[in-house]
C-alpha cells in the first residue's frame, strides 16, 4: 500500500513537471494586422483610438515633448528632462519615417466604489532610415469615463536590427541546431510508423508515449545565436521555484516568431525516447507478445462485447 502511494505521488510530481506543445509553427501578428485590429476597435472605444493616433502623429513629427506631455503627474515628477534628452537628440539627428505598432492591448477593471479603470499597453517601433530603430514601451491608464489617458510607464531603447534579422553568417551552433531540428522529427516519425505497424509489439502504448520525450529540450534564437535549456530546468524567483522535467514537442521541432520585429526561435530537443526505441529495434531487444497473452486479450475483448 505504501509503495503504491509512493509511486502515485512520484507520478504526480513527474506530470507536474511536464508540458506538451501541439503547435509546430507559430507566426506572430504583423504590425499591419495589429494596426487593423486597433482600427476595428475605434467605434467601440474612440478614446483609445484618439490616444493612439496622438502618439503616432507626435512620433512622426519628432515631437517628443508632445508625447511626454501625456505622462501621469506621478510619472512626470520622477522623469527628469535629462533622461529624455538622448531620445530627442536621436529623433532630431535622423527623422522618423514610419511608426509600427507591435503591441496593442487594453483591459478594463470595473470597480464598485470607485471609477472604472482602463489600462492600455502599447509598443511602437520607430523606423529611421539608416539608423537603429527606436522601441517605445508604454502603459497608460484612464480612471473614470471621459478622463484622459495618461502614461504610467514610458520606456524607450535603441533596437538593433541584429536582434530580429537573419545573421549575415551562420555559426557552427546554427548548423548543429539545423541538424537536430531535422533529426528529431525524423526519428520520432520513423519510430511512430514502426510502433504502429509492428505486430505483437509489447508495451505499444508505453512506447508511443516514450518516443515523444526529448531530453534536453533547447530553445535557440536564430538571429543572435542565444540558447537556453527549457527542460530539465529549475527556476527560482522570489522564493518561488518552478521545475520542468520533460517538455513534449509532438512534432520534435517547433519554429516560432513573435512578430515582425522578433527573431525566429527554434525549439527542439534530443530525441532520447525515439533513439532508445531504435537501439532496441536494431539490437532485437523489443519484446513481442506471446500467444497466451494474445489469447487473453482476445478473450477480454469478447467478454467486453458480450
Can you walk me through this structure?
With 306 residues, this protein is an alpha+beta fold. The protein has two domains: 15-27 and 166-289, no CATH class; 45-159, Nuclear Transport Factor 2, Chain: A, CATH 3.10.450. Helices cover 40% and strands 29% of the residues. The chain contains ten helices and 13 strands. The strands form four sheets. Strands 2-12-13-7-8 form a five-stranded mixed beta sheet. Strands 3-4-5-6 form a four-stranded antiparallel beta sheet. It is elongated and about 80 Å long.
Summary keywords:
single chain, 306 residues, alpha+beta, Nuclear Transport Factor 2, Chain: A, 2 domains, five-stranded mixed β-sheet, 13 strands, 40% helix, 29% strand
Helix-strand layout with pairing:
Layout: H1 2-16, E1 18-21, E2 25-27, H2 31-40, H3 46-60, H4 64-68, H5 73-78, H6 81-93, E3 96-109, E4 117-128, E5 133-143, E6 150-159, H7 172-197, H8 204-210, E7 217-221, E8 227-231, E9 233-237, E10 240-244, E11 246-249, E12 253-257, E13 264-269, H9 272-282, H10 291-305
Parallel strand pairs: 1-11, 2-12
Antiparallel strand pairs: 3-4, 4-5, 5-6, 7-8, 7-13, 9-10, 12-13
Helix pairs in contact: 7-9
Amino acid at each position: 500500500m505504501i509503495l503504491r502511494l509512493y509511486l502515485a505521488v512520484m507520478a504526480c510530481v513527474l506530470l507536474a513537471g511536464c508540458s506538451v506543445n501541439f503547435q509546430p509553427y507559430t507566426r506572430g501578428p504583423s504590425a499591419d494586422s495589429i494596426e487593423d485590429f486597433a482600427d476595428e476597435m475605434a467605434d467601440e472605444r474612440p478614446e483609445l483610438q484618439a490616444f493612439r493616433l496622438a502618439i503616432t502623429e507626435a512620433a512622426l513629427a519628432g515631437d517628443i515633448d508632445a508625447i511626454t506631455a501625456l505622462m501621469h503627474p506621478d510619472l512626470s515628477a520622477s522623469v527628469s528632462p535629462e533622461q529624455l534628452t538622448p531620445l530627442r537628440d536621436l529623433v532630431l539627428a535622423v527623422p522618423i519615417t514610419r511608426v509600427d505598432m507591435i503591441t496593442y492591448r487594453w483591459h478594463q477593471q470595473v470597480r464598485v466604489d470607485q471609477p472604472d479603470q482602463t489600462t492600455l499597453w502599447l509598443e511602437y517601433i520607430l523606423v529611421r532610415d539608416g539608423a537603429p530603430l527606436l522601441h517605445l514601451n508604454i502603459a497608460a491608464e484612464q480612471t473614470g469615463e471621459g478622463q484622459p489617458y495618461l502614461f504610467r510607464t514610458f520606456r524607450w531603447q535603441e533596437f538593433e536590427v541584429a536582434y530580429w534579422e537573419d545573421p549575415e553568417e551562420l555559426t557552427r551552433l546554427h548548423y548543429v541546431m539545423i541538424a537536430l531540428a531535422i533529426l528529431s522529427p525524423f526519428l520520432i516519425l520513423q519510430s511512430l510508423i514502426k510502433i504502429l505497424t509492428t505486430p505483437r509489439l509489447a508495451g505499444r502504448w508505453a512506447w508511443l508515449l516514450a518516443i515523444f520525450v526529448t531530453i534536453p529540450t533547447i530553445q535557440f534564437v536564430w538571429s543572435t545565436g542565444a540558447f537556453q535549456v527549457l527542460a530539465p530546468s529549475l527556476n527560482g524567483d522570489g522564493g518561488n521555484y518552478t521545475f520542468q522535467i520533460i517538455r513534449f514537442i509532438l512534432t520534435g521541432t517547433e519554429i516560432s516568431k513573435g512578430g515582425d520585429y522578433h527573431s525566429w526561435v527554434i525549439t527542439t530537443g534530443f530525441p532520447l525516447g525515439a533513439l532508445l526505441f531504435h537501439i532496441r529495434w536494431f539490437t532485437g531487444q523489443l519484446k513481442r507478445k506471446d500467444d497466451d497473452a494474445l489469447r487473453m486479450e482476445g478473450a477480454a475483448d469478447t467478454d467486453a462485447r458480450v
